[in-house]
Structure formats: structure tokens, C-alpha cells
Amino acid sequence: MSQANMELVLATDDDRLQKRMSLSLRVSQWAEWAYDEQRGRYDWESVVRDLEMPLIECLQFFDTDFYIAPVRSLPNITDWSAEDLSTLKSFVSEHFSAVTADEWRLVGAYMNVEQKDCSMAYGICTFPRMTLDLYEAITCHLNNGLMWTDIFEQHPIFSSADVLQTAYNRCNGRSGSNPKIIIKNWSDKETHRIQDIIQSYYKPGDLSEVLIQAQKAFPKRTKASILDKIKRNTARSLYITNSDMYRVDKLVEAYGKDWARIGKEIYVSPRRAQWIWAQHQQRQKVTPPWTDDELNTLRICVRGGIGMAEASRIIGTKSPYMCHIVSHAYTLPLQFRD
Questions:
Q1: Domain that holds residue 170
Q2: d(CA 322, CA 338)
């Protein structure tokens, strides 16, 4: 591109930017004049009439930094007035089919409400109704071991199996009206059961069999909840750290082989706690005793702030794990002595 053409392109871009900034300022100023304190939002219909611009275009050019009043925060559905809810539903249904993240920004600007609050309120207002009969039928299917895809085939009144599952979870199953969201926390016993399932059925990079077995073990929990629990416990259930081994060893010294108590202390199942201790004992058996020279070298490394990997390399006969264990044995609670 020649220098002249480049300058022409830059000049054109500058001109477009100036026009956009000017239009943005104009829309924002008109919105300021049209702010309705009683309703807590802008009268965009009057802005559209005065500027003779489409509503969505006005919202796109509206500068959110130009707000003259703080954006309203309405995190609970009870915070919304009936008029606001009616306006929200009619605006979204009229202008958008499937609302994107950027379009929720426009909805938030129109309502002068936080985007996430608009999304929450609209979802609740337009959510399909879960009747008591349908809830009880789904509960029966779940107790019989049916998957959500199978249940959806028998009750295709919702848009998808995921929507059906979400609607079911939102209902308390006791009343056809005023549905409630109930989140049942995982107990320690259930968490330990998940950890044991992971240890038994996990294959590298594949959680499918773990998920199948976990769904059989917890038929009343949703697939999403079970999968989330599996993902959060996979690393804890499969991998062992030096710190885990050291803590279990010290707890065995304090409580004996009370694996239930030890497991509770380190948030793992009794079976997992026993396995960690066995791994620690195995590593100690294959390691020759420490000599005075090796201990002295380790002492110098610890005092010098040298990491265990480097200390292992300097000593030459001990693994980083054993250096870590022995250094803790001497420094917690004892100290190296000259």
C-alpha cells in the first residue's frame, strides 16, 4: 500500500471514530435527560423518538460510563417490581431470540440493572412449569435407574433433557407452585465413596466409567453434580504428595492405625489413608539408613535455603522425598545441632 493510500485509510478511520464518539455522546446526553428517577431507569422510548434512531442502535451507542445514576442491583427475584419484570420480558422477547452475552449488556443498559440480574430474572420468569405429577413421575424414573435422556424421551414437554433436569432440580416436589432450589451438600461419607470409585475405575484421560459407577452409587443426584464432584476429587484421589505421606505418618504415631480418624483429619477415605501410609512404609524400606555425612550435608542445605531436589543431587544417594521427610523429622519439632 502506498503512503498516500495509507494516509487515506487512516484519515477515514479517524473520521469514523470521531463520528462514532460524537453519536455516542449525543445518545448518552439524551438518555441523561430522559432518566426517570421514579422507575430507576432511562425512558428509551422518548430517546428513540427524539433522535429518530432504532432502539437497539441507541443502546449500542450508549456509553455506560455516562450513567448519571448507579446501575441497579436486583440479585433476587423478589427485588424486582411487577412492572420491571413485565418490561424485561417484553423487551427481550421482542428484540432477541437467543440472547448472547453482548445482548445481555444491551438488556442491562435498557433496564439499568446488572446484566447477571437481568439474565437471572428472565430465566425464572420464562422457565417451564414443573407440576407435582411430573416431579413424582421423574423421581420414580430416577429411582429405577433411568438416565435423563431416557426420561426426556418419555416426557418431551421441555426443550431438552438438560432443561428438564434443571426444572426438576428447581422444584421441591411438595408443591406445584412456588418452586424452590434445594442444594444438598455432599457428606464426608459420600465424598469418600466418590474417592474410592475414582481409585477403582479411573483410566488416564477417561472419566466415563467413573461417572457411570458414581451415578449407580448416587441415583438421586444429578449427572452435573456428580461429574463436578468427580472432577474436584480426581487429583486428591489418585495422586500422593510428600506432604500427604508425612502427615499420615505423624497421625499414625499419634492415633495408631485408626484409619477413619486419620482419613477425617486429611479429608480422604479410611481406605485412602491406609494406602498412603503403606506407600510411605514401602519407600522407607527401600532406602538405606542415613550416614552422619549425609545428615550433615542435608543440614547445610537446609540452613542455606537449598531446595530438596538440589539437596538430593548434592547428597547423591537419597531421593528428594527422603530429604524432605528427614529434614522435617529434624526441624519439626527438633532442630539440627552443631
A1: 128-182
A2: 22
Q: Does 337 fall in a domain?
A: no
CA distance 281 to 283: 5
Buried b (16+ CB within 10 A) or exposed e, 92-111: beebeeeeeeebbbbbbbbb
Dig out the grid coordinates for 57 from the structure: 442502535
Q: Which three cell numbers stand for residue 107?
A: 438488556
C-alpha 201/C-alpha 246 separation (Å) is: 27
For the stretch 229-250, pLDDT in tens is 887 777 655 556 666 677 787 8
Whether 171 is covered by a domain: the verdict is yes
**pTM of model > 0.70:** no
List the grid coordinates of 109. Answer: 443498559
Examine residue 298 and state whether it is found in any structural domain, yes or no: yes
How far, in Å, CA of 26 to CA of 65, rounded? 14
Strand partners, 41: 36
101's grid cell: 452475552
Question: What would the pLDDT profile of 110-151 be if each residue is shown by its tens digit?
Answer: 999 988 888 878 877 776 666 777 777 888 888 777 888 888
Determine the 3-state secondary structure of 41 from DSSP: strand
Whether cis (ω within 30° of 0) applies to the bond prior to 333 is: yes
Rg of the chain (C-alpha set):
32
Where do we find the cell 500422593?
240
Residue reference for cell 423487551: 91
